Amino acid sequence: MDLLRDHLARARAGGAVFARTVAEPPWGLRLAGTIQLSLHTVVRGRGWLWFGADGPGRTVELVPGEVTLVRGGTDHYIGHEPGTDCLEPDEFRARHATDGEPDSPAATVFLCGAYRFSGDIGNGLLTALPQVLTLQAAVGDPLRDVIALLSHELAHPEPGQPTVLDRLLDVLLVLAIRNDFRHNPNAPRWYHASTDPRLSPALQAIHENPSHPWTVPELAAISRLSRAAFARTFHEALDQTPMQYLTDWRMTLARDHLRTGELGIADIAHSVGYTSPYAFTTAFRRHHNQPPTTWRQQESAHNAQPQPHNTRPH
Fold first, then answer.
1. Residues contacting 174, CB < 8 A, separation 6+
2. What is the pLDDT of residues 140-187, one digit of tens each?
């Protein structure tokens, strides 16, 4: 069990969306902040990315061989130059070709992707990322091969393309998150702890089987440490006890189950390690100050509220 893979597998809400575009200047595209995670890469030419409808503040140049991820929350813009007029996605697609090869040497060929995440696990991954993250692919870096394969796949549709694109996007996302988390002191504690050979076996066991009635001695034995040494090392790395981490992870899984509405309380209780619905409800109430049924009702009511027009997904 790879903890990053586990988080990504549980966080993905569905297949990603990707498009290849050929655009000649002037061109500009607005992307709504409701897109949870956008991915941009230029195959030929160059472009610019910025925030702010009233004009560019911070700008990021998009050049071949790099991949830029943008976390949602704020609208962002890409264009042939900073501050150019930007169209809504539907109008942009109608005006610019989405496939084929460029006829003009001034044309830019670029790829845009959009990921959807679900639940608290997905939100946890997103909030750990910076607003903008750019990956640079040196000569010989496999990242360049992934980008080239993406561009070729989008330009030459064949049977099975959605599956191929989904897998390639997963590769890009893993490379980006791994690159950022490895060097980011604010990366989730579980990521750095998962690379510690003293803690990795216990964390993998918890994630692989969260319903098991784990104890500190049992987790310590898996990690080949004494109980005291394991508890101390775990707390130093994750700022909580092993049992607190286990409970938090179970509650995270429970909230995502409650949010989807696919399982009843008894099934959720069993899946996250509680012997009865009553035991689960007691633990959930202690953790959230309300029973799971109330939490689910409030979450459903919140999600049913209409979104403001200016933040509607495109």
1. 4, 5, 8
2. 777 778 888 887 887 777 888 888 888 888 788 888 888 888 888 888
Query: Which residue bears the tokens 């069990």?
Result: 1
CA distance 299 to 277: 20
Contact indicator for 4, 96 with CB cutoff of 8 Å: no
Nearest Cα residue to 171 out of 144, 193, 189: 144
Angle at 282 between CA 277 and CA 284, to 5 degrees: 90
Give dist(CA 271, CA 250) in Å, integer.
9
Residue with tokens 């990021």: 60
- What does the block give as tokens for 113? 């992707």
Specify the pLDDT at position 52: 77
SS3 176: helix
Which domains occur in the chain, in start order? 3-183 (2.60.120.280), 191-303 (1.10.10.60)
> How many residues are there in the chain?
314
More confident residue, 102 or 276: 276
| β-pair partners for 71 | 37
The rounded distance, in Å, linking the Cα atoms of 275 and 56 is 56
Per 3-state DSSP, the chain is made up of helix, strand and coil in percentages (nearest 5) of 50, 20, 35
14 close to 45: Cβ distance less than 8 angstroms: no
The residues, ordered by sequence, that sit 6+ positions from 52 with a Cβ below 8 Å of its Cβ are 77
Three-class SS state of 83: coil
Is the Cβ–Cβ distance between 211 and 271 less than 8 Å? yes
Backbone phi, then psi, for 63, in 5-degree steps? -130, 160
